Amino acid sequence: MPRLDRFATGFYTARMDVYPIHRSAACVAMLIAMLIPGAGCGSKVLQYPEDHERYVRIDKAVESLREAYVKKDLSGMTSLMVPTEQLERLQGDAEGDFEAFQKILLEFRVERIMIENDDIDVYVHWQGVWKKDLEDPGLRQRGHSRLQWVGTKAVLLRGLQGDAPFGIAARQSGVGTPSTKK
C-alpha cells in the first residue's frame, strides 16, 4: 500500500513498497504502453504528392536512358531526347559504341536533382565496362555528368554536360567529338 512521506522541504511523495517482481512487471507494462501508440504510425503520408511523382518520373527517365544504352536500343534512347544537334551527335556516339562493343555495363548513381520550373538538372556519377567480346576484360571508365532534362509530366533529355558515358569507342580511338561540352 502506498505511503506518503514528508520530506524536510515540505513536499509529499508516494512511495511504493513492492516486491522486485512487481517492479519488473510494472516496467514491462510501461514499456508496452509507450510502444502501442507508435505502432499505428507505420506508413507515412506524402506531404507533396505531385513533387514526389515528378521525382519518380525523373528517376525512371534516367534509368530508362541507362537501360536503353546498355541494351543497345537506339530508338529507346531517341524517344527520351529532345531533337537537338548536340543530342543527335550523342546518338551517333552511342551508335558507334553499339557497333564497337559486344557488351556494355553501365551504372548511374544520382548525386542530386535540381528543379527550376520545367528545367531539371540531374547530376550523376557513372561507371562502366565496355567489352569488345565476352573474353575481353573490358575498358573501364567512370565520370561525372550533368543530365539536363525538361518537362513536368513527360521528362525528356535536352542536353548533357561533363563526362559522357556515351561515345567511349570514339574517345578510345582518339576521334572523340566534343558533343557533350556546352
List the topology elements.
Layout: E1 3-6, E2 12-15, H1 20-39, H2 49-70, H3 74-78, H4 85-100, E3 103-116, E4 119-131, E5 139-150, E6 156-162, H5 168-172
Structure description:
With 182 residues, the protein is α+β, with helices and mostly antiparallel strands. The N and C termini lie far apart (83 Å). The chain has helices spanning 20-39, 49-70, 74-78, 85-100, 168-172, and strands spanning 3-6, 12-15, 103-116, 119-131, 139-150, 156-162. The model is unreliable at 177-182 (pLDDT under 50). The protein is elongated. The strands form two sheets. A four-stranded antiparallel sheet has the order 3-4-5-6, covered by helices on one side. Helices cover 37% and strands 30% of the residues. A hairpin with a 5-residue loop joins strand 5 (139-150) and strand 6.
